[in-house]
């Protein structure tokens, strides 16, 4: 099936208020694309198919396609959990997706099919009110998970024209550790200003913000008011097909003998990087860091196992050093930001 252009992402408000655990920019973008491909009025459209080539480009996978590598990436998608709070202070947790199939069609072309979890269906289908929508192109040029989440958080309130949030709540929605950016000036410099610039350049909304409400001890800013405006000054719209075409063309040959050797080396390298981090993080999390390291290091350093090991170990040591100075609740998220700071 050819990927459509100018798709509309329709998202239930309650789903937008939830933060799926540890979703990367690529996974957030994929979820937006998935929502743009289904018909929220027809539950039979819950299974969405992508060619492996298109999936690889959407997820910005940098290596040749390997079945074992795809397994790691799709398993990570299948592990994404949302928690629905209840009125008694408890919650119900479940996955967004329940099943993924990688196979060949009758034309011997590889494809990926993904199906929403049964528990998640009420969040994606057959709702008549309390939802918002946006054109998919808005999600395609944004360069960080913070930018994409900020866009959705504010787009939901575009018709109202403003949104008031505590900084604590906003950090939760962006997946930022509560102990990170404790000074407002740092939060402004590293989160608010980059998001403001990115949305104005690449999306159909822009925003300003100002401190709101009572301040905390020492005049600390606790709450912000975001003023949301329609934006007509963004760069040219990017269709999904154009986004895919911009990604690197990669060869697909899962049965190639040389590729099997690469699969083995790749798995070995991931295990080696886990050891550099004292086996604290899952393979899926190490893969996220591995892809970030590929963007940071020169090719000669990235492809040298020992150099890459020491790079991971240095970043992990930095995480532990910072942990001694302040309590870091979400250690993987914090380590990912240490990596991202060098990209």
UniProtKB/TrEMBL annotation:
Among InterPro entries, the record links this protein to: Initiator_Rep_WH1, WH-like_DNA-bd_sf, WH_DNA-bd_sf
**GO terms for MF:** DNA-directed DNA polymerase activity
Task: Mention any Pfam family matching this sequence.
Answer: Rep3_C
Q: Name one GO biological process term.
A: DNA replication initiation
So which residues are the signal peptide here?
Answer: none
Highest taxon of source? Bacteria
SUPFAM superfamilies, sorted: Winged helix' DNA-binding domain
The chain positions of domain Initiator Rep protein WH1 read 9-155
Provide the family line. Belongs to the initiator RepB protein family.
Annotated protein name in UniProt: Initiator Rep protein WH1 domain-containing protein
Organism whose genome encodes this protein: Johnsonella ignava ATCC 51276
